[in-house]
What does this fold into?
Amino acid sequence: MKVMNLVQAINDALDLKLREDRGVLVYGEDVGVEGGVFRVTEGLQVKHGAERVFDSPLAESGIVGTALGMAITGMKPVVEMQFDGFVYPAMNQILSHVGRFRNRTRGKYSVPMVIRIPYGGGINALEHHSESPEAYFGHTPGLKVVIPSTPYDAKGLLIAAIEDPDPVIYLEPKRIYRAIKQEVPEEKFTIPIGKAKILSPGEHITVIAYGAMIREVQRAMVMAREKGIQVELIDLRTIWPIDRDTIRQSVQKTGRALIVTEAPKSYGPAAELISCINEEAFLSLEAPPTRLTGFDTVIPLPLGEKYYVITPDRILAEIEKLVNY
Amino acid sequence: MFDHKTLNKYKAIENKMYQVLDNEGKVILKDWKPDLSNAEIVQAYKDLLFERTVDLMAVSYQRQGRMFTYPPNLGQEAIHIAAGKVIRMEDWLVPAFRELGAWLAKGVSLWEIFLYFKGNEEGSKFINAPRMLPIAVPIASQLLHATGIAYAMKYNKENSAVFGFVGDGGTSEGDFHEALNFAAVWNAPVVFVIQNNQFAISVPLKMQTKSINLAVKGLAYDVPSVLVDGNDFFAMHDVLSYARKQALESGTPFLIEARTYRQGAHTTSDDPTRYRSKEEEEEWALKDPVQRLKGYLVRQGLWNPGQEDELIAGFKKAIDAEFEKAENFREYELDSVFDYMYHDLPDELKKQKNEYQNYLKLAKGGVK
Ligand SMILES: Cc1ncc(C[n+]2csc(CCOP(=O)(O)OP(=O)(O)O)c2C)c(N)n1
Ligand SMILES: [Mg+2]
It folds into this structure.
């Protein structure tokens, strides 16, 4: 075991897979010498060589499109989008090809690639550096979408993503990149894609969140406990496919559900989760499943972000509303 | 023969076009010799005729309502047959959607092509054509795949070149430029082939670019680039062979602008009389690639035009048989909608499939 933050855990997973599998390549903008703008790939080029860990020209469609080409030959490229707001030039490749190549060729070609994207707000950044685009990917057939909230999960999920025979979008909650430290095994392990995790059991209400929102919910839970409310917190971990079983069992027990995401509200992941709850646990519900999300606005620049970000107080207020419904 | 010296002579920036045959099929280059045997050249001519026959029949199947939209190749066959001769089994073919003869040479079966254009993905699996990609509908996006494959080939020290096709309209897309640039920076062995057939659906080339030709677009990326007469089988064969050799020897990309003309409609849903003149069509008909190679063969005493009707009648029978195979292909099952999306079908998709199957059971059980 070694104490790691998220950045170190992701780096460790990449290092491990680069060592273990010659087919793994890591590239993107500034990932080579610089080690990435967040230092996630720091040291990897020195260890594994510039043929396997390298800077590509500055073009996201190019990065993703070439990775698809490599992947269908059997390589396992792991490419980085520098920020959430810059994956958009690659959307044509992701939507039109990455998620479709296996189906289009009836399984002749598969696309075992990973696209890593730092995402989310709360870091006082310029415009286009604080987006939560997970709904676009969750809505796109052929992809899997994962988001870790802890260093342990970050390592296990990334190894699973690289070993998955299908393309995986791996979103990294950059706000907590260095905020959480945890003991992480140095050896190899995986976290299954498609499995949520109950972080703490509770009787009164289910809260579902992921990524950087987990920590905010946990802070709200401390306050809720003082008021006698026992929250069951589910870390979704995989955005698609959704772990219906874990959600069903939890909501059947608690009868109440709150979804917390920083993504905009309409047509977002929270709406999807509420549909899932309605389908799976309707007869157990004591209150309407509710969502606390970002607004249907552009995420404001840093001085306005305080209105947009979801705080423990707001989460607590929603929890209380639902428990007293 | 096309070599370094020829490349230097046919400078794209000076708008010089490499051409071997004139419109009558006379060799216009001094000291030029084909690097194919007479038998191979005769075979190439038969292949041209075959592609043309397939194409005409495909259009007529479509007109009969037995196939959906189809993009005709008429007029561009020399590019495809030359590419088919140059591209080896170990090479990759990354098509756009208008390279029929090259696909067939790579091992694609005709019934697969018909099946695909009848609307079944089974027809883009290309089971006997390894290293052949499915057709790419989003214009120019496929060229990035070609560059990525080429990086992998080089990384794995495979002696394999990648051939990526695109149309003239495709050169306006960002992916075209990204693919050339990545290939140049990475020293990736890709041969990019632009089929400049003068139109992107209805939009003529002059609305597409201000460049003097499309080959020059490669020069800024330091990709050797040459403008070739795409209606000239020998010119295409010479340049493609050279490009392949250079890709393998120096691991570098190459760009070919094949200047041609789409004699048919864009697809079976298009009507070219809306946007181009009869005069223009007639002018290009004089440069027809099939007629030119035929002219060469007849001149050399290698071909007796009298044998052509019989040959084509034989082709038609074979093509009809392939089409029948596509028509009799097994029915499209519900499973095929779901089962190829992922290596292992996720529970979510199992559930959606089950719900539909249950609906079918109920519906058949007579539920109103
Ligand atoms: C990204 C994209 N935009 C638009 C289309 C619709 N479309 C299909 S073919 C075509 C014209 C392509 O022209 P060109 O690249 O010259 O190839 P050609 O059809 O002449 O072979 C267009 C606009 C498309 N398939 N993909
Ligand atoms: Mg065109």
User: Anything to note?
Assistant: The mean pLDDT of chain B is 96. Chain B touches chain A through 43 residues (CB under 8 Å). The first strand of chain B starts at residue 17 and ends at 18. Residues 4-327 of chain B form a domain with the Rossmann fold fold (CATH 3.40.50.970).
